[in-house]
Amino acid sequence: MQGVHQEPRQECNQAHLRKLGPVIKKLQKNYSFFSELEEREVHELLASCRGITCEKGRVLFNEGDIGDRFFLVLSGEIVISKGGRELARMTPGHIFGEMALLEHIPRTATAAATKDTELFEVPADIVSLVMPGLALKISLHIARQMSEKLREANNQGETSS
Questions:
Q1: In this predicted model, what pLDDT tens digit does every residue of 21-38 receive, in sequence order?
Q2: What are the φ and ψ backbone dihedral angles of 121, each rounded to 5 degrees?
Q3: Where are the alpha helices (DSSP H) in 39-117?
Q4: Sign of the CA dihedral 104, 110, 82, 94?
């Protein structure tokens, strides 16, 4: 991906866990995605993730691409659009592309950075195959976030009627 800088995956060990402890606690405090996970689970998830720095204007995926990973916004902003129409803006703490965890189907929208953005990229198969207990917790979080998005869309539909 042009304009995307990927950090290498991290090794998971006790020394790393101690070093990441304060970072993990901050993630749990500041991002709802991590708040329901234990410190060990957050570390396992981070070990399977890759950090990405994405320049403003860069596309992470296009509508129609096969979804095999999802993303967590750490800083910056991602706009989700379909057919050139903006559907949502993902800000720090939001996840997107999460349907890839549930089904490997073509993307239903395009995701692009509206400003320089830092993300965690989470391969769907690593979470579901390697860490099934964690996958269940993540799936529940995704279901809650999707429900929240649907509720917001319904409320917007009611106010525009």
A1: 677 777 788 777 778 788
A2: -100, 125
A3: 39-48, 99-102
A4: positive
Task: Indicate the pLDDT class of residue 42, thresholds 50, 70 and 90.
Answer: confident
Nearest to 34 by CA among 112, 120, 149: 120
Could you say which DSSP state residue 126 is in?
I
Query: What was the pLDDT predicted at 58?
Result: 96
Which one-letter amino acid corresponds to residue 54?
C
Cα–Cα distance for residue pair 112/58, rounded to 1 Å: 5
CA pair distance 89, 75, nearest whole angstrom: 12
Angle, helix 132-160 to helix 39-48, in steps of 10 degrees: 90
Rg (CA), the chain: 16
| 142 — pLDDT class (breaks 50, 70, 90) | confident
